[in-house]
Amino acid sequence: MESQERDEKNKKEERNDDHIVAEENTRDSVTPVLDIKKKRYNLLIIICALCLGGAVLLIGGRISEQFGLWGYRVQSPITVMKYHSYRNDDSGIKFRYTDEYVIDIDAQNRYGDDYIAGIHLNADQRTGCDIRYNAVGINFAKTDQEISDAIYNDLGKNVKGLSEFHSKRIAIDREDAVQVDFLLVDPLGSTLHVTQVIASHDGQAYLIACGSGEAQYKFFSHDFQLLLDSFSWIK
Question: What are residue 185's phi and psi, to 5 degrees?
Fold first, then answer.
């Protein structure tokens, strides 16, 4: 009888020991998982902080570019950009551009009688913007779709490899204008990305055309947008 009681007591103690060991093993297996989750959470915080820091740099650069005389282009290394203003009293226009570009007034009259002025990179005359008188204006009483269709059809007759066409109504110095973006193939077979804006003022239509090679366009698009945003009429 006493032997049976001892056997039952020993079995009970073994079960308790097994339970304790199981609990310890469970705690040991949970702890690393929690540590891994904690490390992943901390890493996520670091990544978000880096992304936020990058956004702040970009926002700061754009604010400086839009409102300041001196701005910062976010690249490696960071460079200071100076901005110039162009004014043409005869044509009644003015705009701003960065010092990476040179102004071209076509003193030798190589670009036609409708040419007013333009800017292009020092190293590449194919990248930049032209401002011209335009023979045909836009009837802004038409719908946006009607305007878009008319411009697309006209470009399709004169532009090789027209694709990726988009249009939208915008304002130039608080007056209606239309902007179109598209790709074309130049005579050398290269694909160009072009942004054109057609605007009118005091009965005269104007064409602003900016462009570069397709691969480089994204880098220069902020410079083109600076010119468009600053473009205004001389009252």
Answer: -110, 120
